Structure formats: structure tokens, C-alpha cells
Amino acid sequence: MKIGNFDLSKDGTYIIAELSANHGGKIEIAKETIKAAKEIGANAIKLQTYTADTLTLDCDKEDFIIKGGTLWDDRKLYDLYKEAYLPWEWHKELFEYAREIEIDIFSSPFDKTAVDFLEQFEPSAYKIASFEITDYELIRYTASKGRPIIISTGIATIDEIQDAVDICKSEGNEDIVLLKCTSAYPAKLEDANLLTIPNLAQTFGVISGFSDHTLGSTAPIVATTLGAEVIEKHFILDKSIGGADAEFSMDKEEFAQMIQAVRDTEKLLGKVDYTMTEQKKKSRQFSRSLYVAKDIKKGEVFTEENVRSVRPGYGMHPKYLGDVLGKVADKDFLFGDRLAFNSRS
Hints:
The chain is of the alpha/beta class. It has helices at 27-40, 52-55, 77-84, 91-100, 112-119, 136-143, 158-170, 196-204, 218-225, 252-269, 278-283, 321-324, and strands spanning 2-3, 6-7, 14-18, 44-49, 104-109, 126-128, 149-152, 176-181, 207-212, 230-234, 289-292, 307-310. It contains twelve helices and twelve strands. Strands 5-4-3-10-9-8-7-6 form an eight-stranded parallel beta sheet.
């Protein structure tokens, strides 16, 4: 499966820098953030495409006031989204800029009008946010566009995840990535449950990854070891910008360190490999082999006193010690001689 020019089967972990609300209300900051993401090695920058009116109602009733121990408690949903949204009129310039500097760019649509709007930019993928996984018509409409679809599973039941996958497939879209996600901001480490990552792939027959809201790089590193092929993390140019997502976003230095840690982890994981490489062959000099531990005259018997398994590894393999013991020497051997197959009778 490819996202843009990135082949998930051979190019490593696809790392998404989530711009989200970290633009400070200025397109220049958004562009600088895209540039920084490119500089530190992110594979993609992801936007969010909504307005306060496409997400909620401008209503003062209790239902529309945030509560539950979040960073945004007591704020009205409408006001939060109005502050955080990325103006739609910026999209064209941001898409063009990202492509100019050669970093992938796509977005999370939050309703059908956002999908229609984004289609003009021919995004390499679409992302369904955690809280939208229950919006089956949005998933259906987005999947129908035939682009890879990345779905965060943060609030979903296992049945809802299956429904989302089935909906995509019913639209002929098999390019599906499911992201393990804990929809808390920030998320606690003990709530991450990263063992779900490989289980998502096994259970639903799709590519799996991780949308991270924990603090630090530990979770993305562990996710990589568990087979996450996509990692998404909130990215902010500088935390002094502030905003709704600043507290749980990584700045440029932190994000760069995370990317390097993920790439190092990929190198460490490597592949299943039992081949005898040149380095292995070279290192075998420090393994054990059979050597003469005491001068032996022709006709004498090889014993545990005059033949030993010691370092280095230039002599006969230690597994032949039992075959050698009890045999008669067919020539003289000096202390420190290596044994070879033609040196015993």
C-alpha cells in the first residue's frame, strides 16, 4: 500500500506531523511548521478541515459545555472549534507549499463538505479522526473517493471498528490503516495498550499504526517495535505559540528526536536473518575451537588433557571433540597447534 510516493511495505514507518490547531491563527506559522516538519524528516503534514458550524451547534445548553476532566473543561464546544480551526482559504496555499518542498500533505475531513472541498487538492490520503469513527456516512463518503483512508480507533468498540472497515470495503476501498489511539489529551502511558496495534492488523486484515497523545517518545518507539506502520503525533513549531493542542504537542526538537528514535528502532529491528555475513565470519575468530593443550607425540592418544576447546576459532569445531578423544595421533603435535580434520586418525 502506498500513501503518496511512500510504500508502507518497504519504506519503513510513515510518520505524520499533525498540525491540528498549532498554527496560532497565522498562515505564516502554518507554513513554517510544514517547513520544520520537512526539515526534521517527517513524511507528512496533516491538517484538519472543519469549521465550528460543521462540527457542532452554537448553543449554550449544558450539553454543549465541555466537561470530564479535559484541558478544555467549562468551554463551549463552538468557541473551542472556532478558535482552533484552520481557515479553509489557507488550504490551497498550504497544499502548494508542502508539495513545493516535497513533503506529503493531506487532511482530516469532518463532514461531506470538507471531503468535497479537499478533493480539488487531490490529497494522497484521508484521515478519519477518533471521534468521527461513529459517523458511518462520513466514512462511506470519504472511502468512496478511492484514496487511502486512515482511521483512528480511539473511542470505538470492536464492532464499530469492524463496521468502519466493512464500509470502506463496500465502497471498493481496500487501502485501510487503523490507528490505535487513546482519546485523552494528554494520554496516560498505562492507558496506551499498545499491544492492540498488532491485534488490529490481525483481527481486521489491514495495516495498523498508532496515533499518539502521550507525552514523550517512548510510546512511538514501542509502537514501532510492535509493527506500527504509521505513526501520527501532534506537532507545534514552538510551544510559545500556545493554542488548544500545545500542551500535548511536540516541538521541533522533540519531534526530531522522536523521528530519529523511530528510525534507529527500525534499524535495530532489521529482519529475520540467520545468514553468515562477513561480519559474523570475522567475529568467529573469537569463538572456541579444538587446540592442542599439551605436546603430543605420534602414536599417543588424544585426551581431555592434551586437547581442549578454547579460543580462537581457527581450529576444528568443538562439536567434534567427542570424535577426537580416544583417537591416536598420526604425527607429532605441538602445544598451541590447531586441530583439523586431516590431523587425527
